[in-house]
Amino acid sequence: MSGRVLIKVYGHIQPVSDDFFTALVKICSDAISDGQDGSILRREEETVRISFEGLYFPLEETLHLLARHIGPEHRGKLDVLDIENWRLSRHVFDGGLRSSSAGLNSVMDYAGL
Question: Which pTM was predicted?
Answer without folding.
Answer: 0.85
